[in-house]
Amino acid sequence: MVGKIMNKQNGKYLIKGEKGNWEVIIGLEVHAQVISKSKLFSGSSTKFGAEPNTQVSLVDSAFPGMLPVINEYCVQQAIKTGLGLNAKINHYSVFDRKNYFYADLPQGYQISQYKNPIVGEGNITLDLPEGTKNVGIERLHLEQDAGKSIHDIDPNNTYVDLNRSGVALMEIVSKPDLRSPDEVNAYIKKLRSIMRYLGTCDGNMQEGSLRADVNISVRKVGDKKLGTRCEIKNVNSIKFMQMAIAYEAQRQVELLESGKSVDQETRLFDTKKNETRSMRSKEDAHDYRYFPDPDLLPLNLDKKLIEKIKKNLPELPDQKKERFIKNYALNTYEANVLVSEKEISDYFEEVVETSDIKLAKNWIMGDLFASLNEKNISISQSPVTAKIMAQLINSISSGIISGRTAKEVFEIMKETGEEPNKIIESKGLQQKSDPKELEEIIDKILNNNKDKVEQYKSGKDKLFGFFVGQVMKESEGKANPKLVNEILIKKLK
Amino acid sequence: MSIDKDKIKHISQLARISLDSKKTDALAKDLSSIFKFIEQLNEINTDKTEPLSSILNEPLRSREDVINDGKIREKVLKNSPQKNEEFFIVPKVIE
User: Fold this and answer.
1) Any chain A CB within 8 A of the CB of B81?
2) Residue range(s) of every CATH 1.10.10.410 domain in chain A
3) Based on the structure, what is the number of domains in chain B?
4) What residues make up the domain containing B14?
5) Nearest residue in chain B measured CA to CA from A74
6) Region class of A194: left (phi > 0), else alpha (psi between -120 and 50), else beta
7) Is the pLDDT of residue A282 over 70?
8) B85 touches chain A (CB under 8 A)
9) DSSP string, A75-93
10) A205, A182, A200: which is closest to A126 by C-alpha?
11) pTM
């Protein structure tokens, strides 16, 4: 590979070729599974993980004469998502047949939307280390998901499970506004976060509820015209998406610099070899012969319905971020982290309702996040609930325990979910804050170390730490450090 | 538009209909004349006409989001040329 990736100070991702620097142009087609009980055009369940082919109706398996009837809730979910993307909702949209042949597509066509999608142009704000960036949304349309082909049960045959067949998808197409793998990462995360706030898609990439096709082209820095693009399919995690982009961009630069051209084609990312390769079987695939589905009438949306959905939208990540910065004196980074998941922001707000903000954000973003990572669980699965987290913080604020002891208490909480007050009580971890009691300990230490006291008084200041250490040892770490300091200074005068 | 042999081959491939190569010439001729007939429509100026998606002036009927179908695996799999108790079985398709 001749190309080298340069990350210049202004954060630009460029590929250094032999004949100059190249810019990478990326657009994403995200397929987001709609949260609904039943499918887009039938009454079968959408629940993930059921026994194969048990959530299939005669509509989903394309028996002759079966007619699709649209699920009104899925339509509302698409409108909701469109509004969350600041997009134009189209009062008139049409369902089309996208024709292709595949074993997991029993109809022989996918019901999708082609010329008249339900949602038009919108935008999304990315939170990047160097600031925010606006990325355009081209459109959002509703379509059916396909079934699932399973290749690893039998060496000679493919097994087909149609449980997913007909589940509603939102295809969300971005403008070619993304310029680096990091921006792609930020885009997917933000889109996922918005949909999770809205409750329109759970964003679970492992279960395939969020998948993306990546469109990539390259052009010389300064060029205005877009280059020929390739579409990469089969990328089911953000990490693979980033790897695929890095590989594909370099491949295209090499082709162009050696005087060849990029073929517009569908490529697939091989995660084992870390490379993309042409999917020859898809050569004809773009000949989809779209036409309006005669089984479905055009979808006309009532203004009132859109207004009603708009009125009931929840607070979205960007609005919440602004409010957090204003109300809780957070910096942008902290606000971004705390609003990234609705569950995290809810947790934070519950904790700060009854406890100190500064301690709360440090504990949540520090020890709590570390424990979640360690156990690979989400905040809502954490044994440390917001209620007991607030209790722990309050016992630090009120001086019952020191920050150091609090860490010890937290170690127990994260395993057992026990209330910190009970842990402190049963282990006798309360801080010693009674001046009389502390004075007794200090007197004892000073009496036992008369020689050191003399040395200190004759100028060996460093010994102060020694006395503090001895007091802490004697009190089994429970002495209130602030008080110990004060008393020691007085006694050693 | 005149339809040639290659076009016939392409269309039959997309439709997954196998064709006897002896028939392609006759088919090409037939399809060409059908197209010629339909293409008379091109003589009409439709610049200011919205494409028509449906001739029915009725709203799209919808349903509530309730689960009231599925759980009929035996019925669904019944007509499959190859199957087991759980799956449709098809010739290996893999990239």
Assistant:
1) no
2) 435-491
3) 1
4) 5-43
5) B65
6) alpha
7) no
8) no
9) HHHHHHHHHHTT-PBPSEE
10) A182
11) 0.88
For the residues A272-277, what does the mean pLDDT come to?
90
Q: Which DSSP symbol is given to A55? A: S
Task: Note whether B69 contacts A43, CB cutoff 8 Å.
Answer: yes
Domain A435-491 has CATH 1.10.10.410: yes
Question: Is A161 in the B-facing interface, judged by CB distances under 8 Å?
Answer: yes
The answer as to whether B39 is a domain residue is yes
Strands (E), A264-321: 266-270, 275-278, 291-292, 299-300
Of A428, A351, A359, A361, nearest in space to A398 by CA: A359
Instruction: Please give the structure tokens belonging to residue A481.
Output: 């450090």
A171 forms bridges with which residues in the sheet?
Answer: A31, A141
Yes or no, beta carbons of B64 and A101 under 8 Å apart: no
Please provide residue A218's backbone torsions phi and psi, each rounded to the nearest 5 degrees.
Answer: -125, 155
Nearest alpha carbon to residue A85 among A48, A120, A128? A120
**What ipTM is given for this predicted complex?**
0.90
- In this structure, are residues B52 and A298 in contact, taking their beta carbons and an 8 Å threshold? no
Q: Which tops the pLDDT comparison, B48 or A12?
A: B48
Residue A344 has which token pair? Answer: 């995290």
Domain membership flag for residue B30: yes
Q: Which residues of A touch B75 (CB under 8 A)?
A: 58
A159/B88 touch (CB, cutoff 8 Å), yes or no: yes
- Residue B14 belongs to some domain of the structure: yes
Among A473, A459, A443, A363, CA closest to A409? A363
Specify which residues A268 forms β-bridges with: A233, A277
Q: Which of A134-148, A223-237, A279-293, A456-470 is least confident?
A: A279-293
Closest residue to A56, CB basis, from B16, B54, B76? B76
Task: Specify if B29 maps to a domain.
Answer: yes
Q: Which residues pair with A173 in a beta bridge?
A: A29, A139
